[in-house]
Amino acid sequence: MKRTLLSAVVLAGSLALAGCSGSEEPMDHDMSTMAGSESGDQAAHNEADMMFAQMMIPHHEQAVEMADAVLAKDGTNPEVTALATQIKEAQAPEIEQLGQFLDSWGAPRTAEHDGHDGMSGMMTEEDMQALDGATPPESDRLFLEQMIAHHEGAVEMAQTEIDEGSDAAAVEMAQTIVDTQTAEIATMEGLLASM
User: Fold this and answer.
1) I need a surface site. Which of 40, 61, 134, 157 has the fewest CB within 10 A?
2) CA torsion sign, 27 to 30 to 31 to 35?
3) Which residues in the chain land under pLDDT 50?
4) What would the pLDDT profile of 88-115 be if each residue is shown by its tens digit?
């Protein structure tokens, strides 16, 4: 039975390829419909692309929340303030772009699962309360430690998108996240070492 099914699959594939090879039309004439994208200029997307966007939105939102928490404090180390501002300015537009990806793919903004399960680097409610309640210089140290872990989680998620995603724009964003946040991790580790 398995051999018959396999033979049928191979035969069907061969016939499909044979049908394509006889065509004189350009191969890329209907790539936008093959991609399943409403915009027509997006590359084909897959499950990894959707999961990347759905998970990275709340991940970035929490990073912005962490940056806001430290920026609201008087006496924050100026280097920490500059870094928090940089993180916020980079990630807020990426949240918007990730939402646009999902809209163009006809995908919901949130994944079917609820909560932050499987989202590496996310802070707990207790972590966020500790950051909110701390004052400089303790809040500077706490922010750096938490954001290093947070960035490491984002880099891990983005690397998965690079390895498994198929939408060119989403993969490009993932590479930007890896590059930017890896550099920021090094900066934060340097700041921590100097405290």
Assistant:
1) 40
2) negative
3) 1-42, 113-114, 116
4) 999 999 999 999 999 999 999 886 544 5
Pull the structure tokens for residue 3. 């051999």
Contact in structure between 101 and 170 (CB atoms under 8 Å): yes
Residue entry with tokens 């303790």: 138
Domain edges within the chain? 41-106+125-194
The span from the CA of 111 to the CA of 159, in Å, is: 19
The reply to whether the predicted model has a pTM over 0.90 is no
Fold topology of 41-106+125-194:
Ferritin (1.20.1260)
Among candidates 115, 23, 80, which has minimal Cα distance to 72? 80
Cα separation of 164 and 158, whole Å? 10
